[in-house]
Amino acid sequence: MYLFSTKIFTFATHFKQIITMKKFLVLISLALFLSVSNISLAQKVVKLGHIDSNELLKIMPGRDSAYATLQRHVKELEATLKNMKAEFESKYQDFINNQSQMSDLIKQTKTRELQDMQARIEDYQDKLK
Questions:
Q1: CB contact set of 117 (below 8 Å; sequence gap of 6+)
Q2: What is the pTM of this model?
Q3: Contact call for residues 120 and 87 (beta carbons, < 8 A)
Q4: Are 88 and 95 contacting, i.e. CB atoms less than 8 angstroms apart?
Q5: Alpha-carbon distance 92 to 121, whole Å?
């Protein structure tokens, strides 16, 4: 019985040593891998560059036609806004000039109409920004 327990104890001791050695080898392998990967990363050169975007846009093909289309669109939007404002002004002047001849119901209706027009103009201006 003593011999059997000694063999179990010896086996257990060797087993612990084997596990400890495996852990040690794993740690050494991991350290070696990390040091090698850091060396390879340190050898890479970081390249930085600078691009002048204005010069790049100037030499792009189709820039002139795109710019002309944009300018036409801007002019159309500005003309629409100008027409909306002119219509509002004419209706407002009409309201002011004929206010004394209008009934209360018509005044309220015209006032609501003018407020709605002004709100549409403001929304349109906000969308243009």
A1: 84, 87, 88, 91
A2: 0.53
A3: no
A4: no
A5: 14
